[in-house]
Amino acid sequence: MTNQVILLDFWPSMFGMRTKIALAEKGVEYEYKETDPWVKTPLLIEMNPVHKKIPVLIHNGKPICESLIQIEYIDEVWSDTYPILPSDPYEKSQARFWGEFIDRKFYDPSWKVWGTKGEEQVAARKELIEHFKTLETELGDKPYYGGEVFGFVDIALIGYYSWFKAMEKFGEFSIEKEAPKLIEWTKRCIVRESVIKAMADPDNIIQYACVFRKSLGVE
Amino acid sequence: MTNQVILLDFWPSMFGMRTKIALAEKGVEYEYKETDPWVKTPLLIEMNPVHKKIPVLIHNGKPICESLIQIEYIDEVWSDTYPILPSDPYEKSQARFWGEFIDRKFYDPSWKVWGTKGEEQVAARKELIEHFKTLETELGDKPYYGGEVFGFVDIALIGYYSWFKAMEKFGEFSIEKEAPKLIEWTKRCIVRESVIKAMADPDNIIQYACVFRKSLGVE
Questions:
Q1: Nearest by CB: B62 against A62, A66, A90
Q2: What are the angstrom distances between the C-alpha of B130 and each of A45, A48, A164, B106, B165?
Q3: pLDDT at A96
Q4: Average confidence (pLDDT) over B54-69
Q5: Is the pLDDT of residue A95 over 90?
Q6: Which residues of A touch B62 (CB under 8 A)?
Q7: How far apart are alpha carbons B120 and B110 in whole angstroms?
Q8: Phi, psi of B17 (to 5 degrees)
Q9: What's the CA gap between B103 and A8, in Å, rounded?
Q10: What is the pLDDT of residue B31?
Q11: Whole-angstrom distance, CA of residue B92 vs CA of residue A76
Q12: Residues on chain B touching A100 (C-beta within 8 angstroms)
């Protein structure tokens, strides 16, 4: 079967970065279509009619939405190379748990820390720091969340790395001071070819966040 | 290997109902421990230190949290009987997508429609009806979300059935009027032995919701 793979994505998205990393780890070639999610293009609406959000992975014409679901899909379809999820059901459930944690708990304060001000920002920073500490505790002394190997949770979290500098600048805190082992972990991840290629430049993200802050009335 | 299975759950939880249904479909015997999530028992804190929420599935001493993750775990561990998720990666990704949709979009308005009043309730009802219609469209003319078989999305959604009556009573609307095919689908589901055993009595849920409404200052 021919594998025609298209990715609808927007360069600053930490979710899209996950999917790009997973595809790169598997060595899957794909066509990248830059898709600003604030402009609802006909293709985006057709491929993700429910959420109308990026990233959308289109495999042989069929769309897969939601980045964590995309990673699982990629791992299952291209199963003969680099396993992303553990094969053991218990370890797999724990990887899924932390992926969910990042999406449900981490995401909200991670943008509010740079996208709000005043009390809302203070509360977001407090919450975000707690989550950084929780994630650091979960990492423990392992080199990766996947243990000895770079896996599902690593991919789920490292997508945020491009935004760390913006979080620190506008949130006025140091992630390294709060979670030094987590920063050590990022250093191991960001030298991987798949990660280097997927990540947005943190300085470009700061510029993007500046524009966004103005549109939100924060600046 | 001995299979010691314990479920920490609270009777009105639509999430716990999912896990009970999945275990029943697989014919897994387990010890049920009624666990009020508002009372943070030492066992609950030990088994789900991050969220401190039910349901928690404990398999041979190891906890699995989050109901959708529990269903996947149950399906993988007891893989030799009744398959819950489709085996095809694309169909599996779509099942996961709708499970996520129910958790991320449906849950919030589904409690606000009975747990709030005024403008907040009106907005919740509007949103909830939209989601009911979206879910009905996704069902289409299939007997189940799993196609010909009762599967992952069916389990994810039917857990809410016990709450339908409370939603309708306090939200002052008719689900059947808004999404008649969805109600036809519930009728097919609620005759299953696994569902009958798992579901809370809708009238008991109404009584529970009454108590909750008082504590929230809605009544």
A1: A90
A2: 17, 17, 36, 10, 18
A3: 98
A4: 98
A5: yes
A6: 90
A7: 12
A8: -60, -40
A9: 24
A10: 98
A11: 10
A12: 66, 69
Angstrom distance (rounded) from CA B87 to CA B147: 13
Residue A175 contacts residue A164 (beta carbons within 8 Å): yes
Q: Which of residues 71-100 of B touch A (CB under 8 A)?
A: 72-73, 76-77, 89-90, 92-93, 96-97, 100
The residues pairing with B56 across neighbouring beta strands, listed in sequence order, are: B8, B65
Tell me the shortest Cα–Cα distance from A135 to chain B, in angstroms. 10
In tens, the pLDDT along A143-168 reads 999 999 999 999 999 999 999 999 99
Answer for the pair A153, A103: CB distance below 8 angstroms, yes or no: no
Considering chain B, tell me which residue range(s) the CATH 1.20.1050.10 domain(s) occupy.
89-215
Instruction: Give the model confidence (pLDDT) of B151-199 as tens digits.
Output: 999 999 999 999 999 999 999 999 999 999 999 999 999 999 999 999 9
B48 vs B8: CA distance, rounded Å: 10
For residue B79, CA distances in Å to A89, B62, B67, B86, B96 come to: 11, 19, 18, 12, 18
Radius of gyration of chain A (CA): 17
Q: At what angle do helices A118-139 and A107-115 cross, to 10 degrees?
A: 140
Two structure tokens written together for A48: 């993700």
Domain B89-215 has CATH 1.20.1050.10: yes
- Which residue of A lies nearest to B94 if distances are taken between CA atoms? A64
Nearest CA to CA, how far is A189 from chain B (Å)? Answer: 25
Please say whether the beta carbons of A175 and A167 come within 8 A: yes
Q: Name the pLDDT band for B3 (thresholds 50, 70, 90).
A: confident
pLDDT in the model for residue B1: 58
DSSP state of A39: S
* Cα–Cα dist B54/B117, whole Å: 27
Give exposure, A14-31, as e/b (b: 16+ Cβ within 10 Å). Answer: bbbbbbbbbbbbbebebe
Average pLDDT over residues B55-72: 98
Q: Interface pTM (ipTM) of the complex?
A: 0.96
Per-residue pLDDT, B96: 98
Give CA separation, B122 vs B114, B128, B217, in Å: 10, 10, 17
Question: What CATH number is given for B5-77 in this structure?
Answer: 3.40.30.10
Quickly count: other Cβ atoms within 10 Å of residue B170's Cβ.
21
pLDDT at B2 exceeding the cut of 80? no
A81-88: average pLDDT: 97
For chain B, where do the domains classified as CATH 3.40.30.10 start and end?
A: 5-77
